[in-house]
Write a structure and sequence with these properties.
Distance between the termini: 10 Å
Number of helices: 14
Helix content: 25-40%
Strand order of the largest sheet: 5-4-3-2-1-6-8-7
Mean pLDDT: 96
CATH superfamily of the largest domain: ATPase, nucleotide binding domain
Number of strands: 14
Radius of gyration: 21 Å
Oligomer: single chain
Low-confidence stretches: none
Structural class: alpha/beta
């Protein structure tokens, strides 16, 4: 069975084609600058690259170029689109109405549109990718895999906010959580590594990247997570503020005359480690700048580590006995320095990482000492494979 996985952003599209008989990635690619001058498709097949530079005015044109690329006689991997058995789509927000991966029908589409109010940059873009596939592959089933689905197991005391309950009843204002596909994959993978039944697993999953979230997993299910109504809550991130006093928002709006659109842009695009450091949202740039004596870059890195440390410790108290702490995502998988900074101080609780073991990138590695009371791992996430697996199950 061949399954195409599509992940659409507002002006980008990532894709992978899987042979699910052995979960092999046949080809993967990225389309950038959709609807902007200089559109570009870059496809990778093993060590070979195939590039198309041609304007693509919308996602329908982008998907058409993806189909042309994967069926290209010299650079593609299938001879005809009829070889695609199903398409799996990453959707960001399913709200309370969609609590698991589903074959897409009109009811699903309506839910996606309804919850676009909470994910205005993501859900509409996800829909564009779906509509393009429906148009170009009319007889192929499409499956939606939602970032919010894994977190629907959170209890009310963890997902409700301390505001009038009517706002939850009237507008569904609550914590939803994101990166669920990644946290789900890491939970399943950790259970296998520890040779435990997933329902017996308590762990902390740290998905750290430009967008970051931490998830407390209790008895194999999401129990609490850092992101909230939107992906803005929680950790300090690349350009997102994370947690702050809500009065900061109204204060800045009053003092600077910002409207809601400008304030939203400040919190999502101009804050985080970029705003604090004034250098970059890329943690590699920050580490280089900090090493060169840039004080603000150093402060930004310490803020990130301290916020993560606070959540890891707090979540361990929430879930009780903890089997594992797992680092994943671009930073979690690749920055030994950040992992060490986050875990510093946990020695007093008998949790220790081995500096030599910690000197790794990606893959699946145990980085804690032999006598550590909680095992600490680096495990590479694979959201696309998770989407492909769910799609295979449903079709």
């Amino acid at each position: 069975m061949k399954i195409l996985v599509i992940n659409c952003g507002s002006s980008s599209l990532k894709y992978q084609l899987f042979d699910m008989d052995n979960e092999e990635v046949l080809v993967k690619g990225l389309v950038e600058r959709i609807g902007i001058d200089g559109s570009r498709l870059k496809q990778e097949k093993g060590d070979d690259e195939y590039i198309i530079e041609e304007d693509m005015k919308d996602h329908t044109e982008a998907v058409k170029h993806v189909f042309d690329a994967i069926t290209d006689k010299e650079n593609g991997v299938i001879s005809d689109l009829s070889e695609i058995d199903a398409v799996g789509h990453r959707f960001v927000h399913g709200g309370e109405k969609i609590t698991k991966s589903v074959v897409i029908d009109d009811e699903v589409k309506e839910a996606v549109k309804e919850y676009s109010k909470f994910a205005p940059l993501h859900n509409p873009a996800n829909m564009m990718g779906l509509e393009a596939c429906e148009k170009l592959l009319p007889n192929v089933k499409n499956v939606a895999v939602f970032d919010t689905a894994f977190h629907q197991s959170m209890p009310e005391e963890n997902f409700l906010y301390g505001i009038d309950y009517k706002y939850y009843e009237d507008q569904a204002v609550r914590k939803y959580g994101f990166h669920g596909t990644s946290h789900d994959f890491i939970t399943q993978k950790t259970a296998k590594v520890l040779e435990k039944d997933q329902k017996d697993l308590n762990m902390i999953s740290c998905h750290l990247g430009n967008g970051s979230s931490i998830c407390a997993v209790k008895e194999g299910k999401s129990f609490d997570t850092t992101m909230g109504l939107t992906p803005l809550e929680g950790l300090v991130m690349g350009t997102r503020s994370g947690d702050l006093d809500p009065t900061v928002v109204t204060f800045l709006m009053n003092e600077y005359g910002y409207d809601t659109k400008k304030m939203d842009n400040v919190l999502n695009k101009e804050s985080g480690v970029l705003g604090v450091s004034g250098v970059s949202s890329d943690f590699r740039d920050l580490e280089n700048a900090a090493n060169d004596g840039n004080k603000r870059a150093d402060i930004a890195l310490k803020m990130f580590a301290n916020r993560a440390k606070r959540y890891v410790a707090g979540y361990m108290a929430e879930i009780g006995k903890t089997d594992a702490i797992v680092f994943t995502g671009g930073i979690g998988e690749n920055s030994a320095t950040m992992r060490a900074d986050i875990m510093k101080g946990f020695e007093q609780f008998g949790i220790k990482i081995d500096p030599e073991k910690n000197n790794v990138r990606g893959g699946c590695h145990l980085i804690s000492t032999d006598d550590s009371k909680v095992k600490v791992f680096v495990i590479a996430t694979n959201e696309e494979l998770m989407i492909a697996r769910d799609t295979k199950k449903l079709v």
